Description:
The structure is a single chain. This protein has 160 residues and is an all-beta fold. The protein has a single domain, classed as Jelly Rolls (Sandwich). 0% of the residues lie in helices and 49% in strands. It has no helices and 13 strands. The strands form four sheets. Strands 2-7-12-9-10 form a five-stranded antiparallel sheet, with no helix packed on it. It has a four-stranded antiparallel sheet with strand order 1-13-8-11, with no helix packed on it. A hairpin with a 7-residue loop joins strand 5 (46-49) and strand 6 (57-60). It is globular, with a radius of gyration of 15 Å. Residues 1-41 have low confidence and may be disordered.
Amino acid sequence: MKESILTLAAVLGAFAASAEEGGVVFRDCPKCDRQIRISKDCRTAFPRRADGASGGMEVGYLGNRRTNYLAWNDVNIVGGGERTLAFFCRTGEPRSFAVTVDDGQPVTLDVEPTGGAFKEVSVDVALTAGAHSIRISNSEAWTPDFDKMEIRDRKAGGLK
């Protein structure tokens, strides 16, 4: 079974950085036909090169308002069941972010300072078979910077 490790460098077109303010730029993803909405100038979420990131990139300037979120769309789950969503992030100060699957209730995860390294923060969820949207956000404050998300099958203990 294919690994479910969604690095930002590998799936730049599979996430949407959303902003409803001016200065938004659309960039074509070199690996697929999708586009990314980003803008460093208006301080909305954007990918950038990062030492220590698994794919060489991270997403920064995420959060601080309702419309500045990151979403992985069309995440296909083969066979329903319990999964662990593991987010690899870093921050120099305590921060938090909410995880929302499809239209469900958000779950808030707290992240303590990571000392510059990417650390895993995870949440367990029940997912049905099929396509899902996984969104991370914080409407009131900045989130940590993100490297990747992994989806693990809790029963098998591995990646699915």
